[in-house]
Design goal:
Layout: E1 3-9, E2 17-22, E3 29-31, E4 36-40, E5 46-56, E6 63-73, E7 81-82, E8 91-96, E9 102-107, E10 114-119, E11 126-127, E12 136-141, E13 149-154, E14 163-168, E15 179-180, E16 188-193, E17 200-204, E18 211-215, E19 223-224, E20 234-239, E21 245-250, E22 258-263, E23 269-271, E24 278-284
Antiparallel strand pairs: 1-2, 1-24, 2-3, 4-5, 5-6, 6-7, 8-9, 9-10, 10-11, 12-13, 13-14, 14-15, 16-17, 17-18, 18-19, 20-21, 21-22, 22-23
Amino acid sequence: EQEALVLSQSLGEVQPALYRISGDGTNEERVDGEYRDIVYDIGGVNVAFVRDVEYVDSETEDVSTFPELFIAPADDLGNVTQITELRSTLLASPSFSPEGGELVFVSNFNGSPDIWYTTITGEGQRRLTENGEFIDTDPAWRPVLTSREIVFVTDQNTPGRTKLSRLYVVGPDEPVEVEQLSRTGGEDSDPAWSDLGDVIAYISTTRGDADLYITDDQPGGGLLLTVSDDGAEDRAPDFTPDGRFIAFVSNRLDDRFQTYVISLDGDVITRVTESNRDDLLFIYRPDLLQRLP
């Protein structure tokens, strides 16, 4: 059975909890520790995630808490390595390079949310976007070997409404160019690549509520998948390893956000989790054998 991770939160809990789970929603096992924004590399070998770190001022002994980026082996989640020490109030949305040695993530170290770059050893950290007051967030590295393409969302050209866009990771002294991909109304978020890197799933409020769309990486409109959901809010898409379905979080059947899978034509939808918590994300462990054409 395909392995997955689900991050969910019970009413009254301060932090979400991480669970290992089978891809069909069975065999749930809670994982000790604090994890947010967890993501696999494309081989399913390592995970990156966000965790709060306490820093003590050496002079005043005041304690401040900031989110930082960590990595760990997927089979040994307790063996963590801290990658950043930015001490920014926002750090989120890590995404591995195809080869697994680099990451992009979001930080507001310089004031506004920007896309940042780092190696998994913490070297070479730098901002990729420097758009002043604009919002750049939700980066996803295209999972094709040697690719430098990142899809993300930004309101650089549409202030107040983030749109699906792309950039390419370049050297420290090279300019980063941003190309807007989505042309429809609403606000976009949560882009995710299929494991073959040929389809992008994302969330958009084009029709008012947050719905699930798919597209390729060319400018234009996306295909709406969640057509009849009575105004439900959809979040956090992630493709199954075989690329035939997309897992996403939705409150379509009750007041709780649970995980569902939907076919790429939108015709088949199945509920995966049935808990008394609210799911934040559900991610499948990649399977390299299923990436072969």
